[in-house]
Amino acid sequence: MLTLYIGNKNYSSWSLRGWLAVKLSRLPFREVMVQLTGQVNAANRAFSPTTRVPVLHDGDIVVWDSMAIAEYLAERNPGMWPADAATRAFARCVAAEMHSGFVALRNDMTMCIRERVDVRPWSPELTADIERVIEIWTEGRTRFGSGGQYLCGAFSLADVFYAPVAYRFHTYDVSPSGAAGQYLEDLLAHPFMREWEAAALAETAIIDADEPRLLYRDKLATRASG
Asked: Are residues 25 and 125 part of one domain?
């Protein structure tokens, strides 16, 4: 059986991607929760070469990095990417773009599923990242998504990589219109997402480095007093 090491579900966007990829594969697995602290934990080297999560163990094979986990699983389960070549190319491109980019979105909108805050005005960099995500979602739904509710029709690894963004948009009150907005609703309603969210909301651990009300304390205080 596969073993997946993940961090706190309320905060760990990378863990969410790895977990969703394994769920999508339909392979049996057990998950091991690693409490995140906001600091590097050298003890994690016992199961992770980088000390980070997610990490997938398949017998003697160790796969770290969420994209590597997705591709390792997809080799055994071809249906995790869209079957159509053009759709699959789009899905791979947008997943890779999310995996390697969107720095402002990652830094300025930390994933904290239980929180609801509005931290406008956004920086120009964050605004550009949000606009690009909405562009991708709109293109996916209008060009490739006619066969289902998700980015390329059926739920796929493309959706896995944008799942943390859906939670971020929900937390920070980002409300796209049109096809992108409907996609956001459908993604948040997926049974896998509901399962992860329920577990995240049951957690009690607090990681200050990822708490929006601490990160944006001054901005929120100014808005409240104004």
From this structure: no
